[in-house]
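Action item from last week, closing it out:
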Amino acid sequence: MILSEADKAKQNKDYAETVLSDANGIMQIEMRDELQPADGEQFSLALIRKNTDGTGTIVFGTDKLVPIKTVLTLAGSQLKEQASQTEQAGVAKRNEEQRKANLKSLSQEMEPHSFQPAFHVDVTKLNGAAIPAE
């Protein structure tokens, strides 16, 4: 099923809301009136200015749903990508661990049956020339 851009955006927004509802967050702040979400909502939006001393200051807050949904959609997209990369790294790690375990198990199974080549070459008949016995 091919999703429209609107459906993808909604899925990303919903994903971000789910993940961020219980996330630890970047930092705790005091929720002043200017930063309160709209009635019945969980999120609001803050604009942060970087100060010359390297600190940040919240200079604007809004409870308007359109910009909040836009940011949640962006967050959902990035969170999904991070989750996908984490999962891929986990799969690769599990595959490598399983490969090592399989190799170790195979080595242990083969050890009692170690291969010892059993052949004899009569050097006196090499190249058709006889080699005098000592």
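Closing note: The CA atoms of residues 88 and 131 lie 64 Å apart.
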